[in-house]
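Encode chain A's predicted structure.
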Amino acid sequence: MKWIFKIALFVALVIAMNWQYEQWAYKEYVFREADQVMQIEKVKNADVIYLSASSNFSPRPQEEDPRKLSQFVGNYFPSLLFEAINTPASHAGSHVDLLRFIPEKNKIQTVVCVINLRSMGPDWLHSSLETALNKQGVMYQSRPPIINRFLTSLGAYDNKTIEEREDERADMWAAPNLPFPSPRTNVNEWCALYKWGEWTDPKRQLADQYIKQYAYVVDENNPRIKDLDEIVSVSKERGWNLVFSILSENIVDAELLAGPELTQLMTMNVEWIKSRYEIDAMVVDNLNLLEPVNFHDKDFPTEHYNEEGRKRIASNIAHRLKHYHKNAFRNAVWEAELNPIK
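Encoded structure for chain A:
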């Protein structure tokens, strides 16, 4: 009886502490460390949710129309409520945690999840930002908030040091896993090739960055693929329509700077992703959709698009999304103004 009393007392204490924590400190902590928790109450009432990273934002607030890419998609469905969850540097792993955190009672019909090719490569898989994202992920677990907070204090998540992550990334870049003969069997050899002058030349540095970001072969062992598999599983469990939107990359500059082998790899990886998921989800392929002018950053390969780029991708997504929401679809008034692709 003594043990039963002690256990009951402990459970009651935890419940009381959790209640007090939720009332006084929880909101302040998640606002500072894991603010997406606070968006869940909002997105659970949406018809469509859009999951992405910084590709959703305008890189230039002074644009004529600086709205998010997801808002442009929503223009095509004025009667539906669209909500976006977008955290810079986030990826499919972050999105899995957030989807599982959504309450069972929700109004969501469709989930649009962005797939960023760079997020599957060594540089992003072992980014120094992963520790912060993993810490946030603890707060997205369906446990009493005080337990989650206690686990973050203990460092009970993947919190490798920057040096450890750099070592893991370096190992992947050195591994001979590319489908080309020497000197393109791995990233290091490929980057060592002479191109565009000395290594200090800006074109040479940008070419090497393209290689580091995209020179890999995706397979079922890639952590992001495992995350996408989980997103498929969650969507099936909840009865949501699932759309994977493969983001546009600067294919033209990638080939110009690093050669056709790199764009062959990028295309091959996209085709592999499509073949894996087209049975269980709608896959929207935006890889070759844009031109160099639509990419904001010129000194590093990113997915930050100008207004026209965001609108063009939104149009491609919306016309496919029409399959699930035909009665709600209306052509956006700005679509006719888009410049034709050269």
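The two ends are 80 Å apart (CA to CA).
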